[in-house]
Amino acid sequence: MAVNADGRLEVFALEPGGSGIRHRWQEGPGGAWTPAWHRFGTAAGTAPRAARDGGGRLTVTAVGPSGAGTFARRQTVPSGGWDEWLPLFGWSAAAPALAVNADGRLEAFSLAPGGARLVHRWQTGPGGPWDPAREFGEPGLRLAATPTAAVDATGRIHVLAVTVDGLVRTRVQERPSGGWRPWSAFGDRPVAPLVSGTPSG
What we know:
By secondary structure, the protein is mainly β. It has no helices and 18 strands. It has strands at 2-3, 9-14, 21-25, 38-41, 49-52, 58-63, 70-77, 80-82, 86-89, 97-100, 106-111, 118-122, 134-135, 148-151, 157-162, 168-175, 178-180, 184-185.
């Protein structure tokens, strides 16, 4: 789910069996939803994710069937119209996590199947093209699932990841919109690792 620039909520969901992606949206801020689900994408391997950049446009990410490539689709204008799907990452365990930098640029984090490689990309400007993918994970550590990313009150992105052993690791931006501190432990209490693509209950 994501919020359009005009305040309307929009929901994106994976059809049973991964046969396609559908979406619905509010017809006005806080108002009624469209009566039916509308087709948004073809077959996908996992549920999509969505976020809004600083220019006001939504971006939706999704993984192809069996994890074969990750793609992104962006609104043509804030709150309306959609561009074509474009490649974003290679093989991925799930749709990339998205976070909005303090300067409005989206940043995406993608985990390879098996959890041994974590990479990230970011927009060169709010709503603009994406910088080439770069390594982001810790050498020798295998993750159970795509990390979670969120922005704190100072504008810095925090990334939380769980290893296959249930240890929680975190990495935080050095400053809003730029630079990253090294990975560190997020406490010493293990959690139940939930592998990407598996149900939570």
